[in-house]
Amino acid sequence: MNVEVRTLILGQQAQGPKEGTSMSTAAITVPVTVADHQNCPATSVLRRVGDKWSVVILSVLRHGAHGFNELDRSVEGLSRRMLTRTLRALEEDGLISRTVHPTMPPRVDYALTDLGRSFLEPVRALGLWALAHQSDLEAAHTRDS
Prior knowledge:
The protein is α+β, with helices and mostly antiparallel strands. It is built from 7 helices and 5 strands; from the N terminus they run E-E-H-H-H-E-H-H-E-E-H-H. The N and C termini lie far apart (41 Å). It is 51% helix and 17% strand. The chain has helices spanning 34-39, 41-50, 54-61, 68-74, 80-92, 114-132, 134-144, and strands spanning 6-10, 26-30, 66-67, 96-101, 107-112. A hairpin with a 5-residue loop joins strand 4 and strand 5. The strands form 2 sheets. The chain has a 3-stranded antiparallel beta sheet. A two-stranded antiparallel ribbon has the order 1-2.
């Protein structure tokens, strides 16, 4: 199968940078097949950003480690089952650490890893972008209705 692979240049237009600009560029391959999409490292990151609870939990943990029950009380509307699943996924992704303390009863703390802290930087930038463009986005939705 001959699949066309497209390359997207971030930071410049397709015909090249405008004269006098010094934008840095990074080339990434844009997935064009299901397999390419599934294997793309950006896909799993965007899924994590886009799921309902991950960013909320990471935002709570940015203030410091929390136990399971503390997290459960901190996020309204999040079931304990979904909290468990989300914490496992975040730990598997290396965004949080899980520490079991040998107490009776055992205490488990969750904390951001360095990777998790670095993950929150672009997520915060995306949130600030959404706030800055909220009226534009609402206007676009109104036009489409």
